[in-house]
Amino acid sequence: MTIPPFHLAFPVTDLEEARKFYVSLLGAGTGREAPRWIDFNLYGHQITAHLVDEMDKSPTNPVDGKNIPARHFGVILERPDWDDLADRLKAHGTTFIVEPYIRFEGQTGEQATMFLQDPSGNYLEFKAFADPKDIFDPEYKD
């Protein structure tokens, strides 16, 4: 399945902290930029950090007994790429909102997942499905 790149814009309170986090830690490339925004290439998708003066708080939703940020974004990776990213984040001493773990192990929808925050408080989820066909499985029920 070929999926076109998505675009997502999100607020940050410090562009240089955002650049360091997305480029140095997550491995994103940079694209166009202006004094108040930067385009990043995150696994082939365009995400744009927009400088704001203040961040709003994000509500959470209980999932698997964890408080998951309702407002979050991320990328679905191949499992080896997810493992590499999880290892890099752990080696960096990243504080996770949800530590890397496997949901629904041995079941439909099995996925590796982890949540973290960027320096401006935006929530990110990175996941990898055991079977990519489960990404949009209409039979899935949590």
TrEMBL record:
PROSITE patterns named in the record: VOC (PS51819)
Chain ranges of the VOC domain: 4-129
Pfam families recorded: Glyoxalase (PF00903)
Domain of life assignment: Bacteria
CDD domains: VOC_like
The name this protein goes by in its record: Glyoxalase
Lineage of the organism: Bacteria, Pseudomonadati, Pseudomonadota, Alphaproteobacteria, Emcibacterales
